[in-house]
Amino acid sequence: MASTTATGDNDENTTISFGCDYAKSSNAKCHGKYCENEISKGTLRLSRLIPNPFIPQSSTREEQLMPVYYHVQCMINYLRTGNEKKKRIENVAKNLQGFDELKKKDQEKLKKLFNYEEKLQGNLSETSTTVQTTYLEHDKDKKYWQISYDNKSTKTKYGLLDEPDSNAIILYKDFSNKAEAKKYADKKIQEKIQKNEYTLKKQTGVTTNNQTPVATKRKRKQSPAPANTASTKRIKKQRTIITTATRKQPTRSASIRK
Ligand SMILES: [Zn+2]
């Protein structure tokens, strides 16, 4: 089982509720897995309320809980990983305590961000027709690993072959473009096969090498219009010079007539 708990979020199933507010000081550090930076005073932050391990059971329920704070994006990253059972934010207005007290623009920002997450995950669902999935199995360890990608995001899913699907760990990633997402997926697949000794079992939705639809109507190469030959032909208009023979008036010879 140790092999599947790669996320290391031991407390990921213990979220009691989610909240949001503006950091009252810069003291709290972000709980984000790769962050751990401070959340500066006044910053919009999200939180998870979890059981406080330092308070004895005898205390009141309020005291038994403690918040852990996240930068907005760090919370999103936290929510992009883990198994199905993990508690997540489905609707910011409903699931985030303190949402109504936020500035309007921050409410809109959160709505937009979480709508995007929903879309991203929907696009990568197993029923999606455009998604490309590669499924690998590790025969010896009886575990599986699969990666799907669609547009510019990826979904990795892995777990033990004899465990229910809901135990599988899922990880969503979003990239700046499609090529980056594909690069990541290809790299991971190679890594699993070469280093971790997984075997490729099936691939779905994989198009045979970038079938960019060829335009059925071939554009006729338009040859340049024939040059106007008439213009080149030098029609020499021969000017017929009509010389009017000037009839010479008989000059009267000055004959001296006597
Ligand atoms: Zn952070």
UniProtKB/TrEMBL annotation:
It is found in: Nucleus. GO terms for cellular component: nucleus. Keywords: Metal-binding, Nucleus, Zinc, Zinc-finger. Residues 18-112 form the PARP-type domain. Residues 202-214, 240-258 have a biased composition (Polar residues). One of its GO terms (molecular function) is zinc ion binding. InterPro entries: Znf_PARP, Znf_PARP_sf. It comes from the Eukaryota. Residues 202-258 are annotated as: Disordered. This is PARP-type domain-containing protein.
